Amino acid sequence: MRPALCRLCGSYCPILVTVEKGRATKVTGDRNAPLYEGYTCPKGRALPEHHNGPSRLLSSRKRGPDGTYAPISSDDAMDEIAQRVQSIIARHGPRSVALYWGTGLCTFPQNVNIAAAWMEAIGSPMVFGATAIDKPGAPIAQALHGHWPAGHPPFEEAEAWILIGLNPLISRSGGFPPNNPGLRLKEAVDRRGMKLIVIDPRETETAGRADLHLQARPGSDPAILAAMIHVILRERLQDSAFLDENVMGLASLKAVTDDFPPERAGAMAGVDPAAIEETARIFANSRYAGIGTGVGPSFSLTGTLTDYLASCLMTLCGFWSRAGDRVTKPHVLLPAYQPRAEPMAPFPAWGTGERLRMRGLGYNAAGMPTGALPDEILTEGEGRVRALFCMAGNPMMAWPDQHRAFAALKSLDLLVTADLEMSATARISDYVIAPKLTLEMPGTSALVESAKYYGHNRGIEGPYGRYFPAVVAPPEGADVIADWELYYGLAQRMGLQLAMKTAFGIGQHLEIETQIDLLDMVSKPTDDDLIALGCRKSRVPLDVVKSYPHGRMFNEAQLRVLPRTAECEARLDIGNVRMMAELAAFQPPPFGGSEASHRIFMMVSRRTNRMMNSSGRLNPKLAPLEPTNPAFLHPDDIADLRLVPSGQVEITSRHGSITAIVQPDAGLLRGCLSITQGFGGNPDETDDPEGLGCNTGRLLSADAEFDPISGIPRMGAVPVRISKRP
Ligand SMILES: Nc1nc2c(c(=O)[nH]1)N[C@H]1C(S)=C(S)[C@@H](COP(=O)(O)OP(=O)(O)OC[C@H]3O[C@@H](n4cnc5c(=O)[nH]c(N)nc54)[C@H](O)[C@@H]3O)O[C@H]1N2
Ligand SMILES: Nc1nc2c(c(=O)[nH]1)N[C@H]1C(S)=C(S)[C@@H](COP(=O)(O)OP(=O)(O)OC[C@H]3O[C@@H](n4cnc5c(=O)[nH]c(N)nc54)[C@H](O)[C@@H]3O)O[C@H]1N2
Ligand code: SF4
Ligand SMILES: [Mo]
């Protein structure tokens, strides 16, 4: 059995892989690895099928004139793509080439670094990622509020934890410890008596374990958080000494939240005002407490304000590590960094980079606005995107507004997708590049260390470090390349020098200067060379980390927070003008109305245990267990609408319509419809709600409503009508 990390999602669980005749045959949790206690999920345990399943591409494909796909060698594919992209650049300029990377980046983060290096070498700033249609408000809020580099105390010291639109027992996502969230929750709630408070319209797996579940209406979170601040300031529960020393903007925050007494917020959110008061008191009376935010508020278009107010709550109560405290997230594979008990000042969250041609959008702290990329492809004129490279993402399943995404991708002169299978996006691509998969590549735990840059409560706690070699070779006879090798191969053919950038921070908030490494363009580096380059300044030398095959807690790398320096003038801003104006004008989306004799429901998204977004739907171990994505409704709503469980319903928004199978969920707030994304087929394929499921992206519009900074379109709290299909 060979030790490795599962890299299907950002949790990076340690695993043991049984290898027979050169193939992975079984995956279990690795109990000898620290922090995770042998934890895995069904997706991780299905890694052998991910690698060896019948749908895996063992060679690249090229689309012929009749629309069918034929194998092509990776070298020939790179020759042809290099020629085509050069002629597109010659005619239309480098901005006509765009890159989109998706969640498969977890496999080997250097893949994106090299693809981005190629984009820089050709001179195109059009690099888009899935993070801009996920929680883009988190980094933007951090820019507006400022950052506390010393971080927060460890989770095991928290006396209360608030989860807002986040379901870590299933998503194992940031905002809660990613290492074995079930056990962390049990230890905290059952053994330590930590108070868990969940704000979610659904009684999720996590909410079922909470002390308090605020079953709020989708899109109402800012009102609840503003009322919590109201209560804390009214009852003087804030940490005034911390505020005096480190913070500005208190008067503005107080003035605006004065207008959010719990009664008003409770009416907006549909929750008991007493529960909001109780939440505020539990939070502020804790020695330390934390808040995790998920995609719920982000999709409801309140992501930036929700994350900003969550940071304000942390700051009001001074829940940040102080001089002398142990640093909760010390560096191991990241370069040495000594935090101090002082703020890093707010910085501009937008307006510093490339502008899009539409909607006033541009580069921001969350990257380029992916929600507007289809229109950059469709809109005529100079700068129009004509070629798209899609790496480890599946736009046809993931981009909001599926019909528009389809029209955009079909209109491209060149679409190159790297995917392990003929995904929905692969099925309309000119070239499909077959990649090496995760067990076929070495890796490190650097990603879980740097996750802290994407939000204060993300990433792993403690001085944990891990390296592992590839576990298996690609199947015999396969012509598969690492995702990064496509961009390296194109650069070689185009005579370009690549410079790999490794950044330690986000936007302009950099703890440590970005590292730039020129790649040898004659003799190709290996996966391990790229890892070594990225770790060349690591706090613990990579070779030392390598000598512990199951990973280790490098306690010798543990640090204490140093005191504030006399010169530090930076202050965290809890009264940002734009955020205060947005809060003052805040109104939640209308809930429970009716239109033309139809009740209006609010559609919200949920994740399922066996799929990673659209990934897993062709996995022979997982797919039969999760064949479709039912539309969940409260049983009383099912009865009111005279529907029958497992019957077909038509769901219609202002922008589109899909057919789904209805299922009861007694824990769902009445008036909501909860459904998983990433299912269904392409618009030119036959709808099959029972076999393929349905694509909720068809109910969304890319431009009807969107966040003015990140450009994320409304993807949650979407008004829909539901009717029975004959
Ligand atoms: N309607 C709706 N839309 C949504 C969401 C929603 O909840 N509702 N969620 C949004 C969110 S949060 C996100 S993050 C995005 C996700 O957007 P995407 O990342 O674009 O979508 P995924 O379905 O995660 O696609 C991952 C793809 O990568 C492939 N893959 C996996 N590993 C590798 C690898 O190592 N190499 C390569 N080349 N490919 C690999 C998988 O087969 C899969 O096709 O979708 C967003 N869109
Ligand atoms: N098993 C599994 N794990 C995954 C993924 C997966 O597809 N499957 N996807 C990965 C990805 S890309 C991401 S981004 C993360 C996401 O991880 P999470 O952020 O935990 O996402 P969800 O599990 O969809 O939980 C979102 C919750 O928000 C609630 N909600 C909806 N609207 C609102 C609102 O306006 N306010 C509040 N307070 N709640 C609301 C929903 O009911 C739902 O329970 O998970 C990652 N992990
Ligand atoms: S939670 Fe599941 S998919 Fe994510 S890393 Fe762990 S085993 Fe893999
Ligand atoms: Mo995501």
TrEMBL record:
A Pfam match: Molybdopterin
GO molecular function: 4 iron, 4 sulfur cluster binding; metal ion binding; molybdopterin cofactor binding; oxidoreductase activity
Sorted UniProt keywords: 4Fe-4S, Iron, Iron-sulfur, Metal-binding
Boundaries of every 4Fe-4S Mo/W bis-MGD-type domain copy: 1-55
Family annotation (SUPFAM superfamilies): ADC-like (SSF50692), Formate dehydrogenase/DMSO reductase, domains 1-3 (SSF53706)
Highest taxon of the lineage: Bacteria
Region (Disordered), start-end ranges: 45-73
Signal peptide: none
Database matches in InterPro entries: Asp_de-COase-like_dom_sf, MoPterin_dinucl-bd_dom, Mopterin_OxRdtase, Mopterin_OxRdtase_4Fe-4S_dom, MopterinOxRdtase_cofactor_BS, Prok_Mopterin_Oxidored
Family listed: Belongs to the prokaryotic molybdopterin-containing oxidoreductase family.
Protein's recorded name: 4Fe-4S Mo/W bis-MGD-type domain-containing protein
The species this protein was found in: Tardibacter chloracetimidivorans
